[in-house]
């Protein structure tokens, strides 16, 4: 039997992360992927409704509490590139208890509509 040691990081509270769920797919303008790129701007209304602005589009979402929280694990110790073995150690660095759900179609942001002459 393989034992995997899981411990929490630091003496203080764990970081609280938020999961972002979008319907559809996001494609980068440049070939290379989305890693390290800024997706958009996240804002909240006075009523606590999340608003995501991506380019010239706006998405309205809702805050959902997860039924089962996720733990963010970082592998530590010997053979970090190898699969879990007898000396594998993981550290819990954050918890995810909430997700922002954007399930509606994005709406275009139109700021100035030219009038016909």
From TrEMBL:
GO BP terms in the entry: DNA replication; mitotic sister chromatid cohesion
Keyword Nucleus set for record: yes
Localisation per UniProt entry: Nucleus
Main location group: nucleus
CC terms in the record's Gene Ontology section: Ctf18 RFC-like complex
Keyword terms, alphabetized: Cell cycle, DNA replication, DNA-binding, Nucleus
Top-rank taxon: Eukaryota
Keyword Cell cycle attributed: yes
MF annotations from Gene Ontology: DNA binding
InterPro entries: Ctf8
Entry's family note: Belongs to the CTF8 family.
Name under which the protein is recorded: Chromosome transmission fidelity factor 8
Protein species of origin: Columba livia (Rock dove)
